[in-house]
Design brief:
Number of domains: 1
Structural class: alpha/beta
CATH superfamily: DHBP synthase
Number of helices: 7
Strand content: 15-25%
Number of strands: 10
C-alpha cells in the first residue's frame, strides 16, 4: 500500500483518476473511497470492505451545488446544509434519475456529506467529481480511527493518506425524504439541532 500526506493532493487525485482505492483521514473517522463514475471502482471498493450489497456507499461532495447534481435538494435541506455543512452530518435525500441505480443498490435515495476537511474538499474540487467514501474498516468491524487501523483492516487497498481524524466519531445520518426528519444513526449533531433550523 502506497502512503501519501495531505500536501500531495494532486498525486492523490491522479491515483483516484487511475481507479485506485484510497483511504483518507476525514473530519470524523478514517474513510476509504473511489472516484464516482466507474461502477468497477465501486465493486472493488465493496469487495475490499466485504460490504453487504444491501448497504450503498455514501457520497462526499464539496458544495450544495454539487449535491444538487445527484440529489433533489429542497429549501429545508438547503437550510440544514448551510447551517451544519461542512460537518459531521450525512443527509439521505431522493436521488436524481440520472444517477445509475447501481450506485444506490436500487434505492431511490442517496447519502451525501460535505466533510469539514480542507484536504478532501480540495481533492473533490480538483477532480470536479464526487467521491464514494465509506468508513475504512471491514464491514461490521471496529471503526478505523488511525492509519494503523486501516493498515490492519484493509491491507489490500492501493493507498492511504496519512493524518489524524478530528472528531473520532462517525457523522449523524438524517433521513430528509419525509415530512419529519428521522435520525438513522446518532452522531455529533442532534435531531433537536436539525429541527431548530
Amino acid at each position: 500500500m502506497k502512503t501519501y500526506d495531505r500536501k500531495e493532493v494532486r498525486r492523490v487525485a491522479d491515483c483516484l483518476k487511475n481507479h485506485e482505492i484510497i483511504a483518507l483521514p476525514t473530519d470524523t473517522v478514517y474513510g476509504v473511497g473511489v472516484l464516482y463514475g466507474d461502477l468497477n471502482d465501486l465493486e472493488r471498493l465493496k469487495n475490499a470492505k466485504h460490504r453487504p450489497e444491501t448497504k450503498p456507499i455514501p457520497m462526499m461532495v464539496s458544495s450544495i451545488a454539487q449535491m444538487e447534481k445527484v440529489a433533489y435538494v429542497d429549501e429545508r435541506v438547503k437550510r440544514i446544509a448551510q447551517k451544519f455543512l461542512p460537518g459531521a452530518l450525512t443527509l439521505v435525500l431522493k436521488v436524481r434519475d440520472e444517477v445509475p441505480s447501481s450506485y444506490t443498490n436500487g434505492l431511490d435515495t442517496i447519502a451525501l456529506r460535505i466533510p469539514d476537511e480542507p484536504f478532501i474538499l480540495e481533492l473533490i474540487d480538483l477532480l470536479d467529481t464526487p467521491l464514494l467514501v465509506t468508513s475504512a474498516n471491514q464491514s461490521g468491524q471496529k471503526t478505523a480511527l488511525t492509519s494503523d487501523d486501516v493498515f490492519e483492516q484493509l491491507p489490500d487497498i492501493d493507498g492511504i493518506v496519512l493524518g489524524r481524524c478530528k472528531a473520532l466519531q462517525a457523522s449523524t445520518i438524517v433521513d430528509c425524504t419525509k415530512d419529519r426528519l428521522q435520525i438513522l444513526r446518532p452522531g455529533p449533531i442532534s435531531l433537536e439541532e436539525l429541527e431548530s433550523v
